[in-house]
Design brief:
Layout lengths: L3 E3 L2 E3 L17 H12 L1 H33 L5 H47 L4 H5 L2 H16 L1 H25 L1 H48 L1 H7 L2 H8 L3 H42 L5 H14 L5 H22 L19 E10 L2 E11 L4 E5 L6 H8 L7 E6 L2 E2 L5 H7 E5 L9 H6 L7 H10 L3 H5 L16 H14 L4 E5 L7 H13 L5 E5 L3 H6 L2 E6 L2 E6 L1 H4 L3 H7 L11
Parallel strand pairs: 5-10, 5-11, 8-9, 9-10
Antiparallel strand pairs: 1-2, 3-4, 3-6, 6-7, 11-12
Length: 596
Amino acid sequence: MVGRRAGGRTVPRTSPTPGPPSPTRRPDAGRRVLTGALRHSLLRTLTVALLGAASAATAVALPAVLGHTLDLALDSAPGAGHALALSAVLLVAEVLLDALVTLTGGVTTARSTAWLRHRGTGHLLSLGPLRATDRFTTGDLVNRLTGNAAEAGSAPTTAAAALAALLTPVGALVALALTDLWLAAVFLAGLPLLTLLLRSFARGSSDSVRRYQRVQAEIASRLVEALGGARTIAAAGTARREGARILAPLPELGAQGRLMWQVYGRAVVGSSILVPLLTTAVLAVGGLRLAHGALTVGGLLAASRYAALTAGLGGLTGQLNALVRSRAAARRIGELLALPPAGHGARSLPADGRGRLELRGVTVARDGAPVLHGVDLVVPGGTTMAVVGRSGAGKSLLAAVAGRLTDPDDGTVLLDGVRLDQADPVQLRQEVGYAFERPALFGDTVGEAIAFGPRPVPARRIEAAARAAGADPFVRLLPGGYATPLADAPLSGGEFQRLGVARAFAHAGRLLILDDATSSLDTVTEHHVSRALLKDVRPGTRLLITHRLSSAARADLVAWLERGRIRAVAPHDVLWRDPDYRAVFSPTAPAPGTPS
């Protein structure tokens, strides 16, 4: 099974969890998202509504003017030419207004979607790297910030267009009543059935749309996981099996899709039957009224057009469908925005601090089970401490807590006497650096990838950091050296890792945390990096998450982590006397003093 990354390591996952747990599902979350999108695009939405209302008014006025023009022409009465010119003006105005509604609506939808994606991405980044991925899978997050944001972003335009779409049939019904009350009464007789049809559609489609979007997110989550582990899948020869796993929810997706279209189809078919019947009834009664002299030919023409426009109520099913989808999508975005962001303080770290790190009663749980249990740990300022333990002991989670990549569920973490959740976040990121086992490199060139961080880095420091990390020799062999485009640099796993270490060295502050950041390096290079870490990088506290015996031996102190608890803190040579400690590195590790 493919895993997901957290804090630079791969965390196994037994099954994707595309939706958040029930506490984050708030019934008004979607409404708040839609309200926010409407407020953001209020002026443009009002413009769409006004243009739509003007188009509706033009559409309602045109049949009366055409009917009057026809009567004048049949009677050879004066003013027929002016009436014909007015009809042409109204026709052109309707076309232009519809075009403006389409253009303005498209711009409004694009701006609303961009705002929702910007807000969602900003909130996601404010949560910290682990908080969001603890609740949502990566694929689900991508789905919420792309497809769901686009559907929710269309809500203001759809609502404005729906208002205009409602004004047209309502206005036409009023105009039909002014033309002939009997004709309006005939149409109103079937209106309750049309209203029930629309209500049934809105109620029936809401649940199916929500389930359809949930299954979509599940498939996206599985696909993203598979892409992240593509090499493992290829090496294991399980591509067919993995493809079947990704597409396993497809039958449910198809079922929900068919259900959606069945609900929509029933509404369309119902309106397609009912609306023509009403229109035919209006025309039949209008013909009788014409035969008895109660209606003119122009009046019948206007009445037939008004009946057709009033029948546009059946077309509201499309608008309702879009609004239902927008609301369901907005609810999914609202679940993401409902996650509380990490709080920050404004306290400054002491200027003379040496990087003393303290963990007091730190407990962290994942998936309801504690991973770190009441950890108490002090790393004296200026000390290099290695954290060792078997796989799954909680080493990387401890590293994440130590630099506030995640917050503990209980307990506090202090740096030079200042709680991390009360520290100024800008200064904290400048003073706490990280290097990971699988670094992600950002920037257009190799040099920019090393310089990427909280503050600008001059070229000389970039090169010095690369030398300290053992990256300078292979970087200079690249076609453009440090200016080589990152996408064109053929990097091995070890070279990739060295660039990540170089980036951490370039931004080293009072606390530097290396989370198994030298695991892909050969022994000679790892020794060079460890020596440079102590001599060539800004002095400070070092926290090394490692499984290498040599790294633990060179550290000032070793914290031995076992099953989420600190078993012992002492120099390596003291701990080495314990056979259980030796077994952390190798079940057959030699006793102290034995050559290795």
